[in-house]
Design brief:
The protein is an alpha/beta fold. The protein has a 10-stranded mixed beta sheet, with helices on both faces. Strands 6-7 form a two-stranded antiparallel sheet. Helix 1 packs parallel to helix 12, helix 8 runs parallel beside helix 9 and helix 11 packs across helix 12. The protein is globular and about 55 Å long.
Length: 366
């Protein structure tokens, strides 16, 4: 298929990691003969600096006219003193609303070459492979009213969920679980929150339609503990917006670095892909950023938007092969290990991709 991709490199290390994801996508396009077109647009702090708004109308329209959006990162500490609505992060929330994707998929796995580089004992984390399905358009981040009282001494946010919002994201989680280990852990705080009581009730109803998938309801605090003590006990975690945001960052400890985690936002007019990590402006331009999260996000784009499962799987394997070869960005390197730049890690993954293809073709030729 002809794939029209809107690139939003954004702030900090966003442009660096996005460039490496584009490198891999161009390699796939060249190898398969598919037509991928790329257009680049401003978002976040760079857009505020240039146009006084984090999500310019031109960027929004370009994204709505694309088949998929690949975002780098948004945010910079120079905007910290501003109201939430005036910060770069508000542009990302507005983009998610415009595109309409309500299900955010965040896989986290322990790559075998990094099993001794995580925060866990190797035997506890080896084989960990989980998927967080985060509801993305409801909950505390979008609830109204929100703000400060007249004195400025009291602040308030509103947590709201409807049956429809819970039902549709639950079905995404159960569908994904059917393709994996057929287990869903639904995360809530039903002993305290009314929204969580509704969440648990609706998820239980949906679960009846998936008798082949095991369901368990887990309090969010218990889930956090289990992620730290027995991450292999999870397969698919179904979370609301806030819990999914927090737990996916904790899940990065399973993988070994936040820089490894990709994401896909599905269910709307246009799919959105982005690494889970932030903009890390303190290391921007130094070539220290880990591009694997962005590259793995590109693989998810091929899988879910383009329907190119084989090519997506090849990228996933190439990432692991590059790590097995000893390539390590600064966030992954242990004592005595070779540290490579952002660009060199992208090159190592492209080399692994090419080598795997050549090896496969040579095998078939024999």
């Amino acid at each position: 298929m002809a794939l029209k991709i809107a690139l939003l490199p954004g702030d900090g290390v966003g442009p660096e990691v996005t460039a490496e994801a584009v490198r891999i996508l161009k390699n796939v396009a060249e190898h398969t003969g598919k037509s991928f077109t790329f257009t680049t647009h401003a978002i976040g702090g760079v857009a505020i600096d240039a146009e006084c708004v984090g999500l310019p109308d031109a960027t929004r329209e370009a994204c709505l006219g694309a088949n998929a959006v690949l975002l780098g990162a948004v945010g910079h500490p120079k905007f910290d003193g501003r109201l939430p609505s005036e910060r770069p992060e508000a542009a990302l929330l507005a983009l998610r609303q415009a595109l309409g994707g309500f299900a955010n998929l965040r896989p986290a796995m322990c790559y075998a070459p990094l099993a001794n580089r995580t925060a866990f004992q190797t035997d506890r984390v080896r084989g960990a492979d989980l998927l967080i399905v985060r509801e993305l358009l409801g909950g505390l981040y979008y609830g109204e009213p929100r703000g400060f009282d007249a004195s400025g001494d009291t602040a308030f946010n509103t947590l709201v969920y409807s049956r429809h919002e819970i039902d549709r994201v639950a079905r995404v989680a159960f569908d994904r679980a059917r393709e994996r280990k057929k287990r869903v852990a639904s995360i809530d705080k039903a002993n305290v929150l009314e929204t969580s009581r509704l969440w648990r009730s609706v998820v239980s109803e949906v679960a009846k339609e998936y008798p082949d998938v095991a369901i368990e309801h887990v309090y969010v605090d218990t889930c956090a503990m289990r992620l730290a003590t027995s991450p292999t006990s999870f397969d698919v975690l179904l979370c609301d917006n806030l819990f999914g945001d927090i737990l996916s960052d904790q899940a990065a400890s399973v993988a070994g670095s936040l820089g490894l985690l990709p994401s896909a936002t599905l269910g709307g007019r246009v799919d959105l892909y982005e690494p889970v990590h932030g903009s890390a402006p303190d290391i921007a331009g130094k070539g220290w950023a880990n591009p694997i999260g962005a590259i793995a996000s590109a693989a998810m784009m091929l899988r879910f938007t383009a329907g190119m499962e084989r090519e997506a799987a090849e990228i996933d394997h190439a990432i692991e092969d590059a790590l097995a070869s000893g390539a390590r960005t600064r966030d992954l390197a242990g004592p005595g290990e070779r540290v490579v730049s952002t660009r060199d890690m992208g090159q190592a993954i492209e080399d692994a991709l090419i080598e795997a293809r050549e090896s496969r073709h040579s095998y078939h030729a024999v």
